[in-house]
Input
Amino acid sequence: MSTDQKIDFDKMAEYYTMSSRTLMRWRDDKPQKFELMLDEYNSHQNTEAKQEQSRAEVVVVANFKGGVGKSTMSENYAVFLGDAAILNLDFSQPSAEINSCDTYDYAKYIEKYSIQDLINELSSKYKYIVIDTPGEVTPEVYEALKLTRKIIIPMTIGKRAREKTEITLKTFFGNGTELDEGEYKIYFLFNIVRNGVKKEVAITRFQEMYKNFVSAEGIILKSKLGSLDYSDAISTTEEEGKSIFKLAEENKQAYRTIFGKIHKVCTQIENHFEG
Output
């Protein structure tokens, strides 16, 4: 047996669902069997590494508060990216027939594919997968979050929305959760901001909440905050079955303002994630 390879017995034991102590004993007492197991494990690790390298870039859009514009933001960002599709994890709201870009409702694929397997499958067609999530914790949401470090959290202005956003952060990144390690890039978006709303006050209160959360949890989160004003033009995208980018092409006069704002926000998100 080769002694050159440094073996992570804990990870190998997890793969075989056995104890690392047993593996170490087999290495000494059953070297031929252990060698075969090691070859199989290495092959599995190499396959996973290749899949990860070729996997489409994943961005998750999430917040446990409903009505904050997760689906609209998912579509806008996917269209902005270009070579992208949406994976919709909200089983109660299919969107493949509504969205103007390629959309896959996971409810139709759950019997055949895990989230990771479906993304691996779609990676041959798309460079980016934007994942739209429901307003609740589900196993599918956690599985999606494990495949990326890039998260968009849309939110509206108000105490209840701020509290829901805090719950979202604690659920994802609080002490003892599955995602409490590593650096995540999060873009917080104050969405659907209406005229007359005291945005500056809301931003200050959010920043206080966020600062306290990061300090208490001791987690590394690279974040940026943006905002997008409300526009009646947004509702037109669903009615017409066209993205705001397409509508702006067809009628630049009517949609120029909101198109410019959405394009600016999407550019900020992309720069934040790539920076």
